[in-house]
Amino acid sequence: MSLPCLQEPIRNSLIDDAKARLKKHDAGTKYSHLPSSKYSILLPLLAKEGKLYLLLTLRSDKLRRSPGEVCFPGGKREPTDKDDMATALREAQEEVGLCPHQVEVVCRLVPLLIEVAHTCYSRSFASKRPKFWNISAHCCGMS
Known about the structure:
Elements: H1 3-23, E1 37-48, E2 51-54, E3 57-58, E4 70-71, E5 74-76, H2 84-96, E6 103-114, E7 119-128
Parallel strand pairs: 1-7
Antiparallel strand pairs: 1-2, 1-5, 3-4, 6-7
């Protein structure tokens, strides 16, 4: 039996356990009615070699807003986005090449409200269905 065959059950068990824990915190669409400038981020959860990882991106130093910051893929909602999840998935595809059909949305977290800017950040956990993949650092949304 080859090593990848041995690792697959461990990977699946690890992801299934994480998904079960995260689903307990699912806010669903409870906050989707909030009237504000909306930004959505995706918290991509990846499994590799028996460990879970969250994918972060590094914003370019050349951006006007928040240059050089480490963040999750995400950005501002566009008129063509159906909902917060569509925004997060679109931004993740634009920023790190994550195709929406490769993502399983596990839960939607309670949004982070920032009163000063009248901005709502919707956060969602997702696990990637295929095996671990490598990406290069790229800028995050809200540029």
